[in-house]
Amino acid sequence: FGDVRVPVRVGAFTDWQQLDSQRARVEREWIAFGPRVVVEPTWRVLAGDRGHVEVFARLGGDVGPAWFSEEFRGGDDRDATARWAGELGAGVRGRYGALHAELGYRLRHATYGEIGSDLYGDRNRTELQRQQVFVGFGFTY
How buried is 83 (Cβ within 10 angstroms: 0-12 exposed, 13-18 middle, 19+ buried)? Predict the structure, then answer.
């Protein structure tokens, strides 16, 4: 079946989400930071002298404090809360000589705790979700 590895990465994250409604003239931002853990099981399905091909899965999570701010016609407001998020992803990557390539997909879901502001109201929680397709190319020299 080839070579299987399960790297675990521990580090820090910074996340900035911005929603800007030109029509309503409202801009909202969430900024957060904290610790992050990612587990990435990787299976090398093809290997040769000059390169290899791997498939991988990604499971990650993070938690930390977050700051909310909004600007609107006639005022602005701010609040602080907690944020936690999870990530699922998968992809394929390869190397041939000095060339590297990766194609992957990931789904991230972040939840922000209670926020209270004049315009946004009293929210028990706010959930943001994004999907990404990643295509990357590189070379080593």
Answer: buried
